[in-house]
Amino acid sequence: MEGRGNRAIAPADGSRHELSTRDEILRFIRDHPSCHLRKIKTDLGLGMGTVQYHLDRLAKAGSITSQRHGLRKYFFVTGVFKENEKQLLEMISNETVREILLFVVEGTNPSQTEISQHIGITAASTSWHIKRLRALGIVDENREGKFKRYRLRGEPSQLAALLKTYYPGIWDRWSNRLAEMFLALSAKEDET
Q: For position 1, what pLDDT does the model report?
């Protein structure tokens, strides 16, 4: 029996094998929005050429869209996400950025130094990630004296919903902390 990693590219004749592989890749992208080429290849155990071939066919058919940031291209099923959701999903697919975002949501407008200390990364790394988040309009920067403080732009509930739907393992770990935060936010809104 031929292993998954040894699949050959099927002829472009619409054969059953070719369609099932393409459907498998499409399902994977649907279940893992903002995935990239290597993740698809590795998680599905397919050859690089096979994945590239089917991604090209899916894009030409209008089934998927992609966004390039840096060296990676992130894939999404067409028509499912708004632009800001795509950007947020792309960012939370990175563990360090996810930790930064969750700390920003959880904290009270943390500074870059506070983020670096909490996450355990250098100030330069924090600065680089924050610049990307600001450029995409995900976080806002406010000056307080000599400090720059950061807050999530938009509703934290959108981040929570995407985590719960597409990163359930992470959601389970963070749900108690997020629930406490949302209760505190609700209490503050009720006071005003």
A: 35
Same structural domain, 36 and 74:
yes
Say which residues have a Cβ less than 8 Å from residue 91's Cβ, sequence separation at least 6.
Answer: 97, 98, 101, 132, 133, 136, 138
CA pair distance 105, 99, nearest whole angstrom: 10
**Average pLDDT in the chain:** 81
How many independent structural domains does the chain possess? 2
Q: Which of 67-76, 133-142, 167-176, 182-191 has the lowest mean pLDDT?
A: 182-191
Per-residue HEC secondary structure of 33-47 comes to CCEEHHHHHHHHCCC
| Of the listed ranges 24-28, 92-96, 171-175, the one predicted with least confidence | 171-175
Six-digit token string for 25:
């890749």
Q: What is the CATH number of the domain that holds 49?
A: 1.10.10.10
pTM flag (> 0.85): no
Which residue range forms the structural domain that includes residue 186? 85-191
My answer on whether 110 and 175 are in the same domain is yes
Side chain identity, residue 154: G
Same domain, 126 and 31: no
